Amino acid sequence: MPVKRVQKTPMPERDAVLRSHDFKEVNEGYGIAHAQFEAERCLRCQDPICIDGCPVRVPIPEFIHQVAKGDMRAAAEILRRSNPLPAVCGRVCPQEVQCEEQCSIGIRFKPVAIGYLERFVADWEMEQPAVEIRANLHQDQKVAIVGSGPAGLVCAGELARLGYPVTIFEALHAPGGVLRYGIPEFRLPKNVLDWEIEQLKKLGVEIQCNVIIGKTITMDELMGEMGFSAVFIGTGAGLPSFLGIPGENLNGVYSANEFLTRVNLMHANDFPNADTPVMVGRRVAVIGAGNTAMDTVRTALRVGAEHGMIVYRRSDQEMTARVEEHHHAIEEGVEFHWLTNPVEVLGDEDGWVTGLRCVRMELGAPDDSGRARPVPIEGSEFVIPVDNVVLSIGNKPNPLLLQTTKGLASNKWGCLVVHDGTSETSRDHVFAGGDAVTGAATVILAAGAGKTAATEIHEDLRANS
Amino acid sequence: MAEILEKRPLTPITRLYRVDAPLVAKSAQPGQFVIVRVRDGGERIPLTIADYDRDAGTLTIVVQEVGTTTRYLGQLDVGDDILDLVGPLGMPLEIPVKGHIVGIGGGFGAAALLCLMRELRQRGDTTTIINGAREKDLLILNDELAGVCDNLELCTDDGSAGFHGLVTERLAQLIDGDGPGRPDMVIAIGPMLMIRAVTETTRGKDIPTLVSLDPLMIDGTGMCGGCRVTVDNEVKFACVDGPFFDAHQVDFEEAVRRNKMYVRQEGESKNRTACRKLVVGQD
Ligand SMILES: Cc1cc2nc3c(=O)[nH]c(=O)nc-3n(C[C@H](O)[C@H](O)[C@H](O)COP(=O)(O)OP(=O)(O)OC[C@H]3O[C@@H](n4cnc5c(N)ncnc54)[C@H](O)[C@@H]3O)c2cc1C
Ligand code: FES
After folding, report:
1. Which residue segment(s) compose the domain that B143 sits in?
2. Could you give the dihedral angle defined by the CA atoms of residues A153, A157, A158 and A161, in that order, rounded to the nearest 10 degrees?
3. A 174-203 residues with CB below 8 A of B?
4. Is B109 in the pocket of ligand 2 (CB under 6 A)?
5. What is the mean pLDDT for each group of 10 consecutive residues in chain A (465 residues)?
6. Which residue of B86, B89, B223 is in closest CB contact with A239?
7. List of chain B residues with pLDDT < 70
8. C-alpha of A99 from chain center
9. In a domain, B277, yes or no
10. What pTM was computed for the model?
11. Whether residue B221 sits in one domain with residue B148
């Protein structure tokens, strides 16, 4: 029987002062006792609307019921059937605006900690002795996947399970997309990602890093002489935006992508053992308030900044970061400048950043996005002294593939256009999904898109074989 | 991974490598570059493609051992693999002008003129290469360069070979009609100081000039923006939009300043390579 308890079972987490100086994971994860205690809170609703809140429709009460019963193997199987990346999503999904927002007991109490339970089950699975997975690539049509972010990884896995020989082509030297170069170790340990990639390899998926489709190999070559019958494009939205304010090219100004890539992909936190440095002064201002901004400012503290600041032109109400990341950032001593719009980066005579000129904002009528539009307060300019500025104001799809590929339709934001409700692009047998189609979104949406596309590719190839 | 098939010293600190990279060789065009990483924990650095042989599936790169990664590279031998090599990156060079094209290479930069000038000559342009260095022994690839252009002009600062003086002084003479004559277009590759001087030499003379910029890069795919440069008052990503830009529109002051961002760290890192051997094949 479900047990009524007002609060979520708290997530054990590492001490804020200690953790803000290292890269070990902040959340330590539930133990079995925590998990079962929390799973008992699920009401097992007749009409579980939490499922409607999940982009891939995980049968949430079913897996939670198995956790409560103590059958973790069954829970893991249920979970994996609908979400191929549970250990990742349990850590990074914005549950508070998805499943947990819908949770029935959430109306009066705190919702069931669905995300923590998902993570618990997935971590349990990783710790079990490896089950033997045998590759069974019996189909004769091969599929190419462009990009190894969550969309590409999931699409590859699903297709390999359907028996297709699959090759993933990745531009960087290591697979994973944003999960590798963007989201830091303290939130998503890379061994979780490595484990997922290992499973794919066991399924027979081949991963070729250091290959850029559109540069090293063209789309025509892939589908022509190389003999791929279908292609899935999961190239993400990796092109960083800049504000276009004066001083943006001063020394000490980074895009969040560059800052995070230096640390996550290139291991600048281990410089000079690793060869890539990152430049952090005492005071670092990060512009923006999404997950990327929170990751950046918390990374800045971990590589030596004394003051990590978030500068955002709207208020905390409009912030897009996960609630948990915001909490963790507060605990770690991040300073928040809400309703503050940067207008100029200031530098010294040698071209090094010295400050950020800002103007205070107030909230006006709602804009196109439905959020209150920030308007500048006249005469409110002031300067925040800083040594670094990191811009975290969004990413657009990378144009490399489109530059050299004919017949791929895209919209004015550079996103690939797909036929209504499908993953089909304007080119035959070429499918797309994830951030490359939606613009910067979430891991679960990308994973879901990769999964849907795999089904569509399977149908397309069957119709053509 | 790309196997080193040939390694040849050109000067005490410059080496030529021919590597096995069939996919890159197949699609490489003059003006493009590759990014390499030589060890686990290593950085990613851009290297200009000096030449390629599509049939043999090989790339030629010329490397001056000035930093951490280039020194590690120097420790590799024929038969060893370069851990990561990705490309071809950047925009292929488009040369809109026809006529007398002058390519200027300073130091190791001359290598990058190999495939470019060969193509231009094949297309029917008159081609001149000005190859400059401090002294005779530092001039690289003279024989190879002579084979791909109509006129090879050598310059040394100390007069030990060819013209006694800077490449820009020789260029000024050409502009005045000397030797192979006034260029219809100039393309310069080499140290920042040199390409900047070339830019000033042709400025206002109605000679379109392209220079290859070498900002710091990480991914080389447009993902980080670390390589941004200002050209014609617009921010460009050198790895995607470049590396060649209209010289007369480049904000050199900014480019020079941004390249100095990590001097201290680079020094620290380089000192370490001196006492650390690269473990090959580690990952
Ligand atoms: C710092 C940061 C934090 C985030 N935090 C969260 C979070 O907490 N929760 C959440 O749900 N989402 C988060 N996101 C968003 C989420 O990571 C993305 O929505 C998701 O990764 C998109 O997946 P994807 O597979 O579409 O693309 P990506 O993960 O971007 O992967 C694309 C891959 O394709 C490669 N590629 C691109 N072009 C080519 C080419 N031509 N040839 C070969 N390879 C190519 C790229 O190198 C890259 O590896 C975050 C994003 C960032 C940057
Ligand atoms: S090197 Fe990263 S964008 Fe050019």
Report:
1. 100-259
2. 170
3. 181
4. no
5. 85 93 94 93 92 92 95 94 91 93 91 96 92 86 97 95 96 97 96 93 95 95 96 96 94 96 95 91 96 97 96 92 93 96 95 96 87 90 97 91 89 92 94 95 94 96 86
6. B223
7. 273-283
8. 17
9. no
10. 0.94
11. yes
Whether the CB-CB separation of A388 and A280 falls below 8 Å is answered with yes
Asked whether the beta carbons of residue B27 and residue A215 sit closer than 8 angstroms, the reply is yes
Structure tokens at B116: 């470019």
| Global ipTM | 0.91
Question: Number of A:B CB contacts under 8 A?
Answer: 119
Give A110: exposed, middle or buried? Use CB within 10 Å, 0-12, 13-18, 19+: middle
CATH number at B43 reads: 2.40.30.10
Number of domains in chain B: 2
Could you tell me if B219 lies within 8 Å of chain A, comparing CB atoms?
Answer: yes
Q: Give me the architecture of the A3-127 domain, per CATH.
A: Orthogonal Bundle (1.10)
Q: Does B41 touch chain A (CB under 8 A)?
A: yes
At A105, list the tokens: 């007991």
> Contact at 8 Å (CB) between A188 and A89?
no
Q: In this structure, how many other beta carbons lie within 10 angstroms of the beta carbon of residue B144?
A: 18
Within a domain: B268? no
Q: Domain check: are B66 and B196 in the same one?
A: no
Cβ-Cβ contacts under 8 Å, B254 against chain A: 249, 351
The CATH fold assigned to A142-237+396-463 is FAD/NAD(P)-binding domain (3.50.50)
- A242-393 maps to which CATH number? 3.50.50.60
Q: Do B225 and A242 count as a contact with CB atoms less than 8 A apart?
A: yes
Distances B200 to B93, B156, B211, B232 between C-alpha atoms, Å: 21, 20, 12, 16
> Is residue B8 included in any domain, yes or no?
yes
Question: Is the Cβ atom of B35 under 6 angstroms away from ligand 2?
Answer: no
Among A291, A403, A431, residue to substitute to test ligand 1 (most atoms within 8 Å of Cβ): A291
DSSP H helical ranges for chain B: 22-27, 68-75, 113-122, 142-148, 167-175, 192-202, 238-241, 252-259, 263-274
Q: Is A266 on the interface with B (CB under 8 A)?
A: yes
Report cis status (omega within 30 of 0) of the bond before B243. yes
| B214 and B122 assigned to the same domain | yes
What are the chain B neighbours of A270 within 8 Å (beta carbons)?
41
Beta-carbon separation of B86 and A212 below 8 A: yes
Contact indicator for B99, B185 with CB cutoff of 8 Å: yes
Q: Relative to the alpha carbon of B43, which ligand is closest?
A: 2
The answer to whether B235 contacts chain A (CB < 8 Å) is yes
Pocket of ligand 1 (CB under 6 A): A 92-93, 146-152, 169-172, 177-178, 182-183, 212-214, 234-236, 238, 260, 291-292, 295, 322, 398, 400-401, 434-436, 440-444, 446
Cβ(B224) – ligand 2 distance below 6 Å = yes
Q: Which ligand is nearest to the CA of B224?
A: 2
First vs last C-alpha separation in chain B: 11
* Calculated CA dihedral for residues A294, A296, A299, A304, nearest 10 degrees: -120
Round to whole Å and give the CA distance between A165 and A230: 11
* Position B280 in a domain: no
Q: Which of A381, A367, A446, A458 is nearest to A154 (CA)?
A: A446
Residue of A98, A213, A235 to test ligand 1 pocket, by largest number of atoms within 8 Å of CB:
A235
What are the φ/ψ torsions at residue B107 (nearest 5 degrees)?
60, -135
> Which residues belong to CATH 3.50.50.60 in chain A?
142-237+396-463, 242-393
State the pLDDT at residue B65: 87
Note the pLDDT tens digit of each residue in A301-343. 999 999 999 999 999 988 999 999 999 999 999 999 999 999 9
B153 and B27 housed in the same domain: no
